[in-house]
Design goal:
Elements: H1 2-10, H2 20-39, E1 59-61, E2 67-69, H3 70-79, E3 83-84, E4 91-92, H4 102-116, H5 153-167, E5 171-175, E6 186-190, E7 197-198, E8 201-202, E9 220-222, E10 227-229, H6 231-235, E11 243-245, H7 246-354, H8 359-369, H9 390-414, E12 451-453, E13 459-462, E14 482-483, E15 492-498, E16 505-511, E17 528-534, E18 538-541, E19 547-548, E20 557-563, E21 568-573, E22 578-584, E23 591-596, E24 609-612
Helix pairs in contact: 1-2, 7-8
């Protein structure tokens, strides 16, 4: 078909003297016209592998629908940690079994054969000799003179190709020596370019920067100087440097960027997972800590109860041993006194016999008292002082020493972190809660009319009747309670209250905006956080549904600790140094210490609540 067009272009009456150069020029023109026409239906970019940027070689398709050279995708997956599509980044759990796409391979092979027939052009997509602007827009006039381009077609083509070169596409049109008939022969020269061509022309052709020196497209990349250059720069200043196509270099770097970005995403994902694991571990440790606190209270309480029972048994044994020793001593003393009496009688009888002067009478009397007395040998007899408690005391001392040793090991086990793994160089000093002690006093303006406060505002108890006090808005008029004078809006604070001798009481904190008149619902949602005792033994933390706290040790003094920023309210048995309960919430306003000695129950609960100094 191409030859027919060439014959048509020459005309049926073409002169036999037409030069070979003119025939070649017209042949090239028709070839490029055919190339432009075929490119409108199929472009080389549609048959390029996005990894090697070349026409497919044994193309295969991934499950996501993208196609690559079999060797390229195989090498890509061998070098990557995970099997994923280089284009859409879809991950595959297993490496897909790829098979050659036979239809695409046939299309690619035919495309290669078609492009190989163009001579100097190596492919439709890479040959940039003819563009939309450079294609002739008019059909060939069969009446025109053979051997020449019709009209001023060549001049128009030269003008368009020259203009196109200045504005972006990497093609130039140069003119060789005139042909035999005087007509200049257009020779198309190709500069290195990897720009894509679409149905509308060169893609992004108008956006390519120009060389400031030669005013040509910066289509090359100098790897020695790491900058984009034009063709003339590559032939002059950068002649001895390593030069490659800028677009191809960028595509290669984009592949590297994709691989690096995948690695960064994987590293980020791993670290986010590790952060989640650490947070989860911290939550579990906190929950475990709370459970261990409760278990330690139960075990220590059971141990103390057992020790108290053992102490009672030991005292009983000691008392029995003492009574037995006393009885033994009384028996031995009685026997000794009897023998002493007999000896004294014999001594008196011997004295009388010694005074007899008549030997006949004396010998007779002596023979009556000379018989030996039946006496017990007391030389090896003694009252032992051993009550059998030494072994018990030894065992107790050994248990205490072992217990202390285990307690000393606990911090070393819990806080043992390798230096290379420790997020900080050194652990901060841990303060004891007693170091946050504050001087708390009672506010008489908030006290219920039945409450009686000491002069130093450190004690409070409930009286039998109401007192005449101003009915200000700060005062409680129904609940028998009083607030502390000092409020807290930040920081950590600790105080201790003596509760011994009482059957009922409430201790904790309350917000400034709580309701103080009439019936009050006490719960954290209403601004109250406190621990309660009812009927001597029933301890509870007051919530919507009170949280019962089974305490084996009855506290005589309660310590209250508040961390405002953390929203923490904790209670401790001061004498036993045992944690009782901790409640976590969020404070949004000033909070005050809360005290309620409860009603005196006709003298059964008349002991006061006493704010005591904190001892370190």
């Amino acid at each position: 078909m191409l030859l027919d067009n060439l014959h048509h272009f020459r005309g049926p009456n073409a002169s036999a003297n037409a030069t070979r150069e003119n025939i070649v020029c017209r042949g090239q023109y028709l070839l490029f016209s055919a190339m432009s026409f075929s490119r409108s239906f199929l472009s080389e970019d549609q048959l390029l592998c996005s990894i090697c940027l070349d026409v497919f070689d044994n193309p295969v398709s991934t499950p996501c629908g993208h196609s690559f050279c079999m060797a390229c995708i195989g090498k890509y997956w061998d070098s990557a940690k995970h099997c994923q599509c280089p284009l859409c980044k879809q991950n595959f759990k297993r490496k897909p079994a790829l098979h050659i796409n036979r239809t695409l391979r046939e299309i690619t092979e035919q495309f290669k054969q078609m492009t190989s027939k163009t001579g100097s052009c190596k492919g439709v997509g890479r040959c940039r000799a003819v563009e939309e602007e450079g294609r002739p827009q008019e059909s060939v006039d069969e009446t025109e003179r053979p051997g020449h381009l019709p009209g001023d077609r060549f001049t128009d083509m030269k003008r368009k190709f020259t203009s196109q070169n200045k504005t972006g596409p990497a093609q130039t049109v140069t003119t060789n020596a005139d042909s035999a008939d005087g007509t200049p022969s257009p020779v198309l020269t190709r500069e290195v370019s990897m720009r894509r061509f679409t149905l509308s022309g060169a893609e992004n052709a108008m956006n390519l920067p120009l060389c400031p020196k030669h005013h040509r497209n910066l289509e090359l990349f100098c790897r020695s100087d790491l900058e984009c250059i034009c063709v003339e720069c590559g032939q002059t200043e950068h002649k001895s440097h390593k030069i490659t196509c800028a677009e191809k270099e960028w595509q290669s770097n984009k592949m590297k960027i994709s691989i690096i970005d995948n690695e960064i995403q994987e590293m980020t994902k791993e670290r986010l997972q590790k952060v989640g694991e650490i947070k989860q571990s911290l939550t579990e440790i906190k929950m475990l800590g709370e459970r261990e606190k409760q278990r330690s209270m139960q075990f220590i309480g059971a141990l103390i109860s057992s020790i108290e029972c053992s102490q009672a048994g030991l005292l009983e044994v000691i008392e029995i041993n003492c009574c037995s020793a006393e009885h033994q001593a009384e028996v031995m003393i009685k026997e000794l006194e009897q023998e002493i009496t007999q000896l004294r009688k014999r001594s008196a009888a011997l004295g009388k016999v010694a005074q007899i002067k008549d030997y006949n009478t004396g010998l007779k009397s002596y023979s009556d008292i000379s018989m030996p007395l039946s006496m017990k040998d007391w030389a090896g007899v003694s009252l032992t002082s051993n009550l059998g408690t030494k072994a018990v005391y030894t065992s107790i001392c050994q248990l205490l020493e072992r217990f202390k040793e285990e307690l000393q090991k606990l911090p070393a086990i819990c806080l043992l972190v390798p230096l290379e793994q420790s997020p900080t160089k050194s652990l901060p000093k841990i303060k004891r809660i007693q170091e946050y002690a504050v001087d708390v006093t009672l506010d008489p303006n908030t006290a219920h009319p039945r409450l009686i406060l000491s002069e130093d505002w450190k004690k409070v108890w409930c009286g039998e009747r109401h007192h005449l006090v101003p009915n200000n808005r700060e005062r409680f008029d129904r609940v028998v309670c009083v607030l502390g004078h000092e409020g807290f809006s930040s920081g950590r604070h600790y105080w201790e209250v003596e509760v011994g001798g009482k059957t009922d009481w409430d201790l904790g904190v309350a917000t400034h905006s709580i309701n103080r008149k009439g019936k009050i619902t006490v719960s954290p949602s209403n601004g109250y956080w406190f621990l309660s005792l009812r009927d001597k033994n029933n301890y509870a933390f007051r919530t919507e549904h009170s949280t019962a706290l089974p305490l084996s040790l009855k506290p005589q003094k309660i310590g209250v600790f508040v961390d405002y920023e953390k929203g923490q309210v904790s209670f401790y048995n001061v004498d036993a140094k045992v944690h009782i309960y901790t409640f976590m919430d969020k404070f949004s306003e000033t909070i005050y210490p809360f005290f309620s000695p409860c009603t005196n129950k006709t003298g059964k609960n008349d002991a006061p609540l006493v704010i005591t100094p904190v001892l370190f």
